[in-house]
Amino acid sequence: MAIFLHKTFRKLKDIFWPIERSELSFFIPMALLMMCALYNFAALRAVKDSLIVSNIGAESISFLKLWLVLPVAVIFTIIYLKLSNIFSVSKVFYIVTGCFLLFFWLFAFWIYPNKDLLHPDKDLITTYTLLYPNFKWFIYIAGSWSYALMYIFSELWSVVVINLMFWQFANSIIDTNHARRFYPLFGMIGNFGLIIAGNALVYFSDLSGVPATIVNFASYNCKGAAEISLKLSIMSIVFVGVILLAIMFYINNFVLKNSSHLHPDNESSANPNEEVTSLSLKDSIKLILKSPYIGYITIVIICYGLAINILEGPWKAKIKELHPTQDQYLAFMGHFNIWMGISCVTFMVIGSNVLRLLGWLAAALFTPVTMGITGLAFFTFVVYADFFNEFIDYSRFNPLYAAVIAGALQNILSKSSKYSMFDATKEMAYIPLSLELKTKGKAAAEVLGAKIGKSLGAIIQSTMFTLMPHAGFEEISPVLMVIFIFIIGIWLFDVLKLSKAYENILKSKNT
User: Which of 71, 248, 367, 477 sits between 20 and 30 A of 458, alpha carbons compared?
Assistant: First the structure.
């Protein structure tokens, strides 16, 4: 009986916690690092959307991603490639993350409180939109330029700090065998950051429960409870960011120097995290363009960014209809982040076992299949809303509320599968590569690939809104639905190609 119970416990442990005791000193700090990064990601997503959607409009997001976020992402990639030739992985992490936190602090304590002085006169903006209706979204963005700047930095946080620097740091010190067990669980623990962020946003949205000392400190130069709530949210982002840097310092100076059980797959030194790449920018670009393998990864990232961008626009427009004010929007996103975190933690358990038991390909296919099914369900609800309304009793059913919930469900399930299996399989695909491709190939694929994907969606949407200045997401949703189906098909095909290439690399290393 004792033997049976021991075997049963061991099997359950392998399913839910496949981490050995000797690995905890490394695993826990890395998971906490991910938790802090995801807390800021969730809080920044709510803050940037509450600023843009409530004050400008959901339609402006496509213009922001195309004309502002993408160029800044290109500039950052060039700067990052230069920095990677000068500093080690860990030092680049400190420099870049510190710059992000400095801007967020400036926005909270100087830019946002003085927005009325910094932004152009609202009557002037209205006049220009009437004179040039086809360019009204550009004019609206210019009229709220500080919100646009906050949107840019918030968008780049997830791509730069999480997708690029955290995973590059992890890939440089963890081998493939450890990654199969570690990576899904990094996400599982890290996604508690979403739950904490959601509760924090809900807490800050109702100032009655916040200590008076904190409210008084944050209320300087703020007008109304909504502005104080937003400022408190940004202050928490900076605070958690400082904790993130402290954890990174602890890992580099205490954990890695005492860890002897983790070794990367390449033939570099014992601590590749301290290595500096040597190729020039020109040679790096040539190396990236000549690698079909990096091309497959880039296409996967582009497809995800394009698909999620096409889905999120119509959903956020529906949220604004239901929650029109900035504080209402922020509170809704707080509740959304709570459920997102719960779902992500659940999916991490599923993802860990899919990856371990069914293999890389099954885990990599899970996200496009999940997104395809839930996305089609959402678009069906939006595109055929008039058909459903003919058979619905409005006194018992609110179509707007149902659309918001359907979109939230789609977002939660798609991103949960993305964080649990898409990210894990994508990062595992980098591990067998050379240091140059791990660093510079990853930089191009992650930063440019993600932004190109979202920008392609932005091109489609912004072109429609420019040619049809009076159109909204409801009018263009049928076209978006067709494009979405096409993207999912390309994504599935590319995953199959990447799977074959990944298996070939692993076989060549083992022979």
Answer: 367
Give pLDDT tens digits for 319-354: 888 888 888 888 888 888 888 888 887 887 777 677
b/e 22-38 (16+ beta carbons within 10 angstroms → b): ebeebbebbbbbbbbbb
Contact 496, 425 (CB under 8 A): no
Tell me if 16 is assigned to some domain.
no
112 by Cβ neighbours in 10 Å (0-12 / 13-18 / 19+) ranks as buried
Q: Name the H helices within 419-470.
A: 423-430, 435-436, 442-443, 449-467
* Residue 267 within a domain: no
Contact between residue 250 and residue 29 where contact means Cβ atoms under 8 Å apart: yes
174 assigned to some structural domain: yes
Please count the CA atoms within 13 angstroms of the CA of 181 that sit on its side-chain side: 16
Distance CA 374, CA 310 (A): 13
Query: How far is it, in rounded angstroms, from Cα 477 to Cα 313?
Result: 10
Q: Rounded to two decimals, what is the model's pTM?
A: 0.76
In sequence order, the 6+-apart residues with CB closer than 8 A to the CB of 404 are 315, 318, 319, 322
Whose CA is closest to 122, among 55, 54, 220?
A: 55
**According to the model, what pLDDT value does residue 261 have?**
45
Contacting residues for 321 by C-beta, under 8 A, at least 6 apart: 400
Residue 336: CATH number of its domain: 1.20.1250.20
Assigned domain for 391 exists: yes
* pLDDT for 37 beyond 70: yes
Q: Which tens digits make up the pLDDT trace of 149-207?
A: 999 999 899 888 887 788 888 887 887 777 777 877 787 788 889 899 999 999 998 88
Scan for tokens 């707007």, then name that residue: 400
The predicted-structure confidence for 212-238, as pLDDT tens digits, reads as follows 888 888 887 777 888 898 899 999 999
Tally of domains in the chain: 1
Q: What is the largest CA-CA distance in the chain?
A: 83
The answer to whether the beta carbons of residues 260 and 176 sit under 8 Å apart is: no
Nearest to 356 by CA among 8, 15, 7, 9: 15
Neighbours of 329 (CB within 10 A): 25
